[in-house]
Amino acid sequence: MIMLSREKHMAMAIEEACWALRHRHSLEEAAHAPAINALALALKSQNTGLQEKVQELQNELVQCYRAQRQVSEQLVEEVGSVKAMKMEISQKTQSLEQCQADLLSSREEAARLKATLDEKLGALELLVPENVELRKQVENLEVQSRMLKEENRMLIDRWMSQKMQDAERLNEANAMYQDLLERMKAGRLEELASQQVDGIVRCSELGAEDYVEIKSPRKLKHTIQAHERGCTTAIFQHNSDVLVSGGNDRLVKLWNTRSGSLISSLSGCLSSIFDVALPADNKFVLGACGDHKLYHWEVSSGRIRHCLTGHTEKVCSVDISKVSSNVALSGAHDRTMKFWDLQRGYATNTVVCHSNCNALCFTSDASLFCSGHMDGTLRFWDSRTGKIANEIAAHGQGITSVSVSRSGWMVLTTGRDNQHNLFDVRSMEICASLKAQGHRVSSNWTRSCISADERYVAAGSENGSVVIWNVKNCKVESTLSGHSASVLVCSWSDLGKPLASADRYGNINLWQ
Length: 512
What we know:
Layout lengths: L1 H186 L2 H7 L5 E3 L2 E3 L10 E6 L5 E6 L5 E6 L4 E5 L4 E6 L6 E5 L6 E6 L3 E6 L5 E6 L5 E6 L6 E6 L3 E6 L4 E7 L4 E6 L5 E6 L3 E6 L5 E6 L5 E6 L5 E6 L3 E6 L4 E6 L14 E2 L5 E5 L4 E6 L4 E7 L5 E6 L6 E5 L3 E5 L1
Antiparallel strand pairs: 1-2, 3-30, 4-5, 5-6, 6-7, 8-9, 9-10, 10-11, 12-13, 13-14, 14-15, 16-17, 17-18, 18-19, 20-21, 21-22, 22-23, 24-25, 25-26, 26-27, 28-29, 29-30
């Protein structure tokens, strides 16, 4: 800029000089013509140099403008950055103020907590002596506990010794029982048997029944296609070879096992039938169904006499008293068991239990009833009061079947642990534990059975076989093959034969 100003001043001076020369030229043109010509030439060359300098200065000015524009842009950016930094500083200031407020609050809270800590430390100092005293008491109690455990162990040893002596006496009684059986079979000493051997002559409402020796079945007599979608229950009529079965087709059917033909069919149920029970006179059938009800059919007419309601879940098991045909008992998955008056058709008592009941039955004198539950426990109940009399941890998994022997002194249970146990009702102790290699219980309602002479136990397996054990030596007597599906039910006739087994496909096999 300074150079440009100087060039302008120089140009003005030259113009003034030119004007003065032209003025003088008019006066001294002639005298100074040569000089003027020389001066004109000098001025022309100087003007050319000045134009080049002007062009250079203009280019330099353009560059300066460009540089100024860049500086201006940088200035705008810097101004924006300054504004952003001011906003950030404002936010930081607000955060700082909030932190200072929080710090003040935290200091107050710390002071309060310190005061509480001092208070707790004071209380702890008071509790330490009490804790020391309590530890001494605990140590004394542990010593007493060890002494009690030792005393308990000694008592258990004495109790086990006493039980062994009782078992020996029971074995002697069983030996006497077997001896009397042999004497009765050899000489038909009915009077001696009725006086000395309990269970050889059995009395019912219809009169006396003679003892029948049962042989383990070996061959298949009939195969009956009984129920669609599976047979869930099957029992024989008392002192008869007529079989009563129920299934998922909602029907109860009566079968002539000699010919394998259908006698009659009872309908009206709205769901699967899980269990059936018969009175001593075989005049009606009581069915436990999945629609939360029990159905009371008359055998002669096939009509439903009563529909018993009261359960809130599926009814899984039912039994009728051996003493009175008007008293029935049912168990359901609502954790209740109900007593029923079959004459009037309503529940007379409800027993609440801790686990779902899968199976139940009355004892021979109906003073007790036993129930098997999903928790694997076998429970004995007083029929008059509905209170529990005894309970036994019978199985490691749920119990699927409970049945009382014909004499009434043995209870057979089946569990999902693939084991079958026999218990003595009098001593509440296990008599036999039956299991076999490859034998598996297939459902929560698999029913096993014990023969009328209490010598054999039969149970179905998941592989379609029927396993028969000898109770005396707890060994497998035989294995019957003939089903193409898992066997759910086994039932033995009071007459000694046949043995019936039913599978998941609804087929019933009769063995003899």
